[in-house]
Amino acid sequence: MIIGTHDTSKKVFIIAELSANHNQDFSLAKKAVLIAHEAGCDAIKLQTYTPDSLTLDIKEEKFKAGDLWQNEYLYDLYKRACMPYEWHKPLKEYADELGILLFSSPFDLEAVDVLEGIDVPAYKIASFEITDIPLIKYAASKGKPIIISTGVAEIEDIELAIATCKNAGNEQIVLLKCTSAYPAKPESMNLLTINDMKERFGTEVGLSDHSMGNDAVIASVALGARVIEKHFTPDENIETPDGAFSLSPTQLKEMVTSVRNVEKMLGSVKYDGKSKAYARSLYVSCDIKKGESFSKENIKSIRPGNGLHPKHYEDLLGRRASYDIKAGTPLQMDMTL
Questions:
Q1: Residue 247: closest CA among 262, 235, 263, 258
Q2: Do both 163 and 288 map to the same domain?
Q3: Residue 208, SS3 per DSSP
Q4: Residues 179 and 74 both lie in one domain
């Protein structure tokens, strides 16, 4: 599938997720675009919403104890975490100048319109929005790739989201395995689901990773993930709403390097025997006179591979030398009678 100018069938598509790590500072958001580009990411992703896109301004709904944002009202968090809509256009223009794709997760229909206005190359549906069928339908109707996180989804939710996209005439769908915990514990990742998702839903599959470090990313690429999304912060020294589970700029670059190395390592199915020249073969181990028999005392299987294949060892025992042979000579068939 093509996302912008990127063919995901040929190279893993790496998304640097800025989320709320801009800290409502435009210069920090712009710095993030540059960092994602310099790290070698294929895209940087924003989140497009207002607090009213997500919840009501009531002092009743709080995050639960134990959550990263425990005891904070939902509306208050979204208010300090959202990115002003007027930033989207200049950030998109800056990304275009650098040559990195920029797109976003819309959280309501108005956000889709905002993003259409700056001609984003794709849409991302966040995990908690997978049941927002009107949103998925509207985003899919724009005819661009739809990337859907599945962190809170049951099979039926995923099937409905896919059907909604297809009914809107859009089959450019990527599903992301996701664990919606911040941060996600290793034992909660269940990365083997990636293979099941491919077979069950027939789409390209990737990983939206909220775990610490890059182990899950590397493992998922080895399992066949074609899209990787990972949160990062442009400045790890600044406290941000999502900073606790986000990569630093250095870690982001290391992740990209690791993904590209794993791609090279995976290669293709191949049995090439390129180093066979240094495998074992049959050699004369001590001087042999013409007519003398080959025996366990005068021929050996050793490195390198310039002589006969060791499979001929038993056949040679008892045969006679056709001429004088010095020790260290690779054995050939014409040396025998």
A1: 235
A2: no
A3: strand
A4: yes
